Amino acid sequence: MRRGTFKDETVDYAAVGATQAPDLMHFPPERSVPAEQAWRIGSGESRFRAASEALLSWTAQKAAGLTVSDVRPASGPMYSGVGFDGDGHPIAPTRTEADQRFDEDGTPWVGPGTTVHLHGRVAGLKADGELRVIFVVEEPRRVGFALGTVGGSVVSGEESFMVDWLDNDEVWFAVRAFDAPVALLYKVFRGLMRRRRRELATRYLRAISPLYSTPA
After folding, report:
1. What Rg do the C-alpha atoms of the chain give, in angstroms?
2. Least CB-packed of 63, 67, 82, 159 within 10 Å?
3. How far apart are CA 82 and CA 146, in angstroms?
4. Pair 128, 153: CB distance under 8 Å
């Protein structure tokens, strides 16, 4: 089934879940710019567990210099997110209901259907908008989630974050995204979207990988 078939009326783009499509870099959603980066961030179960917990507690966003606010978990068990198999094909949700978890300042962890407001600056340009968690993956060797824009952002699209613990014991962190311009500046200068995306990816890596952590 084509990814364009799936649409969630709470987000402002049609290709919901397209960050999991194997052909994203070659056939991105219409008018969007795709991006994909992956890094080895260590090895072993402890590294995988630490990175997974950091990811689900919004560390990538917070340590990237973005303010995470107005986190609103989905009400009730009605929304369970979109699930995908290894080839990017939609399947039954990977997680349907679980006890809500919170970080040390009381912010709810990532959960399917959660909405969140992010704001800050990236590469000198405004980064502000409401987003929704499209899906969450919590498997023995794979953890991650995707955020889709709801409104108020300078771009429209989706980004996914995945931590994988491979059979060779390596732990990898991958970010995939597609952005379509909303703000006039990005429509005129589309290269700014690529610049923004590269800067975000670098910040996310520094937040999740101990190899790039800055001493206190």
Report:
1. 16
2. 67
3. 10
4. yes
Token digits for 61?
């966003």
Q: Please give the full DSSP string across 116-140, using - where no structure is assigned.
A: EEEEEEETTEEEEEEEEEEEEEEET
Please name the residue ranges forming H helices in 104-190: 184-188
Query: What angle, rounded to 10 degrees, do the helices at 45-56 and 191-208 form?
Result: 130
**Which residue numbers in the chain have pLDDT < 50?**
1-8, 77-81, 93-98, 214-216
Tokens for 134, please give them: 């499209």
Q: What is the pTM of this model?
A: 0.81
* Inter-residue contact 60 to 161 (CB < 8 Å): yes
HSE at residue 84, side-chain half, CA atoms within 13 A, is 25
CB 159 within 8 A of CB 146: yes
Strand partners of residue 179: 33, 157
> For residues 163 and 52, is the Cβ–Cβ distance under 8 A?
yes
Residue 29: exposure state from Cβ atoms within 10 A (0-12, 13-18, ≥19): buried
92: which residues sit within 8 A by CB, 6+ positions away?
A: 83
Distance separating alpha carbons of residues 181 and 69, to the nearest angstrom: 24
Query: Are 161 and 137 within 8 A, CB to CB?
Result: no
Phi, psi (degrees; rounded to nearest 5) at 4: -65, -15
d(CA 55, CA 138): 11
3-class DSSP state of 110: coil
- 58 within 8 A of 204, measured Cβ to Cβ: no
